[in-house]
Specification:
It contains 12 helices and 6 strands. The chain has 240 residues and is an alpha/beta fold. It has one domain: Rossmann fold (3-Layer(aba) Sandwich), CATH 3.40.50.
């Protein structure tokens, strides 16, 4: 069984990565404090396929190039280099977690159609509270006019872009959607869902409900400005 976690930075993906590691899943040979599989430079290079995505206006993008075309040789080479320790592992259960993997998602599922994909979501308002490297549109060659928007709006647009990557891509065969809030507040139920999906027993790390909806304790941010997030939030089950 091979698995990857598709979730943006500051979405709590460390929790699921630690769960998998605690449960005997080989998640690479080197990690940072967020349990990201590193070094990540080859995945970073692969992630720059964003350059093929064009902004259409109104916080929407055209992902048709990535859907119509097969992964390039450069993309496959970078993915294989990044994943070499995982691919070479003799472990029965293996995988990885890295937030920037989301940018490679449309072509990653073409390379690994039978892999297990955990799509990890968290309330978008929590995602705007702190900066993350994956929000850097200039680094990832994401087409969007940034002039005149503040850092919180920038992060909100980044959340929307990453949401659209997943939504616009035909889903792979083996996929499950998990909300961070559900995993923390209803761990037994979510653990059973994931165990059925992965076919293995899971051992949970310590979970902290105090980290759910941190945005409610940050009233200085005008969340009403992020009206373009309302429809995606409703689709994911976030009413506010």
């Amino acid at each position: 069984m091979m698995v990857t976690v598709i979730g943006r930075g500051h979405s709590g993906t460390r929790v699921i990565a630690e769960t998998l590691r605690n449960s005997g899943v080989y998640m690479g040979n080197k990690f940072n404090k967020s349990s990201d599989f590193i070094p990540a430079k080859y995945m970073y290079w692969a992630a720059k396929i964003n350059k093929h995505v064009k902004y259409k206006g109104h916080y929407k993008w055209d992902f048709s190039y990535l859907k119509k075309n097969e992964p390039s040789d450069d993309f496959k080479d970078n993915i294989n280099r990044y994943l070499k320790p995982v691919l070479d592992s003799k472990s029965e259960h293996k995988g990885w977690k890295l937030p920037e993997t989301v940018f490679a998602y449309p072509w990653l599922i073409k390379m690994f159609p039978d892999m297990n994909y955990i799509i990890w979501n968290r309330h978008p308002y929590d995602s705007v509270l702190s900066p993350h490297k994956s929000d850097r549109f200039d680094v990832w060659r994401i087409d969007f006019p940034l002039e005149g928007i503040d850092e919180h709006m920038h992060r909100a647009v980044s959340w929307k872009y990453q949401y659209e990557i997943i939504r616009s891509t035909p889903p792979p065969k083996n996929i499950i959607h998990v909300k961070y809030e559900d995993f923390v507040k209803h761990p037994v139920r979510e653990k059973r869902r994931l165990e059925k999906f992965l076919g293995i027993s899971l051992k949970l790390p310590k979970l902290y409900t105090s980290r759910v909806e941190r945005w409610r304790r940050e009233p200085s941010i005008n969340y009403n400005e992020f009206s373009f997030l309302r429809k995606p939030m409703r689709r994911l089950g976030y009413n506010r």
